[in-house]
Amino acid sequence: DEAELVTDFEAILGRRDRIEPRDWMPERYRRTLVRQIAQHAHSEIIGMQPEGAWITRAPSLRRKAILLAKVQDEAGHGLYLYSACETLGVSRQELTELLLSGRQKYSSIFNYPTLSYADVGTIGWLVDGAAICNQVPLCRTSYGPYGRAMIRICKEESFHQRQGYELLMTMQRGTDEQRAMVQESVDRFWWPSLMMFGPPDSQSPNTAQSMAWGIKRDTNDELRQKFVDMTVPQAEALGVTLPDPELAWNAERGHYDFGEPDWDELTAVISGDGPCNAERMAHRRRAHEDGAWVREAATAFAARTSEDGR
Ligand code: ACO
Fold it and tell me: φ, ψ for residue 26 (rounded to 5)?
């Protein structure tokens, strides 16, 4: 009966073991996972746009090859995550419709423009760096297919982060103009990167329950702090200034203190009012419509081959 199922479910969580697709799970647990995994998948797919815009304008063949591979990796991440989400009984088509109708979200960070090639480096360093902080603990999330998808994604994200850092390091060794371009880019992406971790714990409606279910392993504020602690020494090595006058080592806490992000800006960007929300969604919708013939052809082919008994 239901009580027994709940006890088994909680025992699995208590052992920090995995819940698998065929296991019983509370409906709210399933819905929370669909929400988070779908949002994550959509972020990977929408996240191809800001950097993809620079593929035709890469400064060298080498940079172009790197960027192409990276953007393709993001598509792959989206596909693993959609597949993980499908194990919870929703189809990729439904998820795509939920994104296109604005009923599911994607990360705020991809609603900011990429204005120079330095942004490709900054996104690798800061945005993928933040993603790694958030995602490494998700390898231990309580839902099996999500955790396993995260393992491969994290390996690739680490590689992306290093390529971003290497790009910025190369520009830092270049001309004054290149160094100014790096600093300007870091100035624009620093605060939005901190916002990727979500609202402060005190204003996060989902954190407590998601932690209790082992979906999230750390709170938004814990991960934000970890990201700041990890990034400050990297900024020093790179020779850039992070645009926060309150940033300072706090020996007592053993962490860096930092200023408060503009939470009104995060709310605006999440609700559709960021600098590029309309553009990102229009582009995604157009790509979906342009791909209709491919989906139709694949469906027709699948129907024919199954009729043939092949
Ligand atoms: N961008 C867009 N929406 C956000 C963001 C953000 N940066 N932060 C929080 N939100 C949304 C939440 O989805 C939630 O809305 P919803 O209930 O309609 O889904 C609302 O704001 C309140 O936030 P929380 O209660 O803190 O929500 P949650 O517990 O889901 O935590 C977080 C948000 C940390 C983003 C979590 O969902 C998560 O870890 N997701 C997996 C990682 C991920 O999605 N990464 C994508 C970007 S990284 C990359 O792809 C390179």
Answer: -65, 145
- For residues 85 and 76, the answer to whether their CB atoms sit within 8 Å is no
Ligand 1 contact via 214 beta carbon (within 6 Å)? no
**Is-above-0.90 flag for pTM?**
yes
Instruction: Name every residue whose Cβ is closer than 8 Å to that of residue 307 and which is 6 or more positions away in sequence.
Output: none
| Ligand 1 near 195 CB (within 6 A) | yes
Residue 22 per-residue DSSP state: T
Separation CA 131–CA 124 (nearest Å): 10
**Tens of pLDDT along 133-176?**
999 999 999 999 999 999 999 999 999 999 999 999 999 999 99
Ligand 1 atom nearest the C-alpha of 107 is 1
- In sequence order, what are the residues at sequence separation of 6 or more whose Cβ sits closer than 8 angstroms to the Cβ of residue 62? none
Pairwise CA distance, residues 87 & 283, whole Å: 28
Q: Is the dihedral of CA 225, 226, 229, 234 positive or negative?
A: negative
**What is the per-residue pLDDT for 310?**
60
